[in-house]
């Protein structure tokens, strides 16, 4: 049988970089399961009893509660994003600010606009939007500032919150470079780490002591993710320059275990995102600087190939999956009215969306994303933004 081999978005630079698509596949798979859990049960995690989860009377949700960890898939995406942005910068001798903006706009907006149009004209819009607010919703989403308020952040598609944050992190990238040039990576990461941990600490205080939702203007700002995103750029810098990293001292397995356990202890929940970002950065660095043998086990190889495919189309998958999952209840009620379906079986029904969204995402990637990516790679020389080091 002829073997199907996937090409990384980064081919033919390095075979090592194919791991990025695999990690993206893991990330979007985790997010898909997380949102399926929320859509089926109406909640994304077990209720709390004090500082620990309340397992009593939780039913089947107890068995699926580990899927609550899936929200950290965005942390994996952010680390990879920081890695790729910095890789583009240090690998391209003709790197310019104008070229950077052009590439980012052409990479993000074509599929994003398609998703916006699809949701606004289809019955899959998760929350009704009045005509009076439609203009404001569209304006904030097009300008990628919809994370400034909860109403706009989750207004059209809740998953879009991370797009606004990521675009704003792109705008912070020149500042990151200036900080790195003046202070070095160590001091820069310490400052950004303190900033991110401080913001996340405010969510802990408001949750445990004020018993209210966190301040969205803080937790949904790019500063709450700047350190996590910058870890990816740091890994890239160390790898390309053959420099040792403090990440070499960490044990990926134990950091990952602690990250997973943290979702079951309420005071640690705000910091789970950072822990997963640190785990991802550690794994990526240690993977890139070590030698690897080709996987020979056919089952593991098929899993790896599928994750790489999923990672390749993960952007389109991310844009469309959550509204489609949420529509499952409406579809079931239309064809099976007055029939109660337990949450666990509703969750299983939502798994049927997976192949449908995967195929649709592959088509969107092939017909829309890929042509714009190739167009963006055409040279456009200009003045360098920042002096290289």
What is the element layout, followed by pairings?
Layout: H1 18-41, E1 48-49, E2 52-53, H2 61-64, H3 73-91, H4 97-121, H5 131-142, H6 150-153, H7 161-208, H8 216-219, H9 226-240, H10 252-261, H11 269-288, H12 298-312, H13 314-326, H14 328-335, H15 343-350, H16 353-376
Antiparallel strand pairs: 1-2
Helix pairs in contact: 1-3, 1-12, 1-13, 1-15, 3-9, 3-11, 4-13, 4-16, 7-9, 7-11, 9-11, 10-11, 13-16
Write structural notes for this entry.
- The chain has 389 residues and is mainly α.
- The protein has a domain at 16-27 and 63-130 and 224-376.
- The protein is built from 16 helices and two strands.
- The chain has helices at 18-41, 61-64, 73-91, 97-121, 131-142, 150-153, 161-208, 216-219, 226-240, 252-261, 269-288, 298-312, 314-326, 328-335, 343-350, 353-376; strands spanning 48-49, 52-53.
- It has a two-stranded antiparallel sheet.
- A hairpin with a 2-residue loop joins strand 1 and strand 2.
- Helix 3 (73-91) packs across helix 11 (269-288), helix 7 packs across helix 11 and helix 9 (226-240) runs parallel beside helix 11 (269-288).
- It starts with 17 loop residues before the first helix and ends in a 13-residue tail after the last helix.
């Amino acid at each position: 049988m002829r073997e199907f081999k996937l090409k990384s978005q980064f081919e033919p630079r390095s075979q090592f970089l194919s791991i990025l698509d695999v990690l993206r596949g893991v990330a979007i798979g985790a997010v898909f399961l997380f949102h399926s859990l929320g859509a089926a049960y109406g909640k994304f995690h077990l209720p709390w009893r004090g500082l620990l989860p309340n397992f009593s009377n939780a039913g089947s949700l107890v068995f699926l509660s580990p899927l609550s960890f899936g929200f950290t898939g965005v942390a994996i995406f952010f680390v990879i994003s920081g890695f790729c942005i910095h890789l583009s910068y240090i690998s391209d001798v003709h790197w310019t600010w104008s070229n950077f903006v052009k590439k980012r706009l052409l990479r993000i907006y074509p599929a994003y606009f398609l998703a916006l149009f699809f949701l606004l004209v289809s019955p899959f819009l998760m929350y009704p939007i009045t005509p009076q607010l439609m203009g404001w919703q569209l304006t904030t989403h097009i300008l990628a500032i919809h994370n400034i308020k909860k109403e706009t952040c989750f207004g059209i598609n809740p998953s879009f919150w991370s797009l606004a944050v990521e675009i704003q992190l792109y705008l912070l990238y020149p500042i990151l470079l200036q900080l790195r040039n003046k202070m070095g990576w160590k001091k820069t990461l310490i400052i950004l780490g303190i900033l991110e941990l401080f913001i996340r600490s405010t969510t802990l205080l408001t949750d445990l002591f004020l018993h209210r939702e966190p301040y969205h203007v803080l937790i949904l700002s790019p500063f709450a993710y700047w350190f996590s995103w910058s870890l990816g750029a740091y890994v890239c810098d160390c790898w390309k320059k053959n420099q040792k990293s403090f990440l070499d001292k960490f044990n990926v397995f134990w950091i990952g275990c602690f990250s997973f356990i943290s979702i079951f202890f309420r005071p640690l929940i705000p910091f789970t995102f950072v822990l997963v970002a640190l785990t991802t950065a550690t794994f990526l660095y240690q993977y890139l600087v070590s030698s690897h043998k080709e996987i020979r086990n056919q089952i593991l190889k098929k899993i790896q190939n599928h994750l790489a495919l999923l990672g390749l189309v993960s952007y389109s998958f991310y844009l469309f999956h959550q509204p489609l999952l949420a529509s499952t209840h409406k579809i079931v009620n239309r064809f099976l009215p007055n029939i109660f379906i337990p949450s666990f079986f509703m969750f299983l029904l939502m798994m049927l969306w997976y192949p449908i969204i995967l195929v649709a995402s592959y088509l969107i990637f092939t017909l829309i994303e890929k042509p714009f990516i190739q167009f963006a790679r055409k040279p456009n020389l200009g003045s360098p933004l920042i002096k290289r080091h």
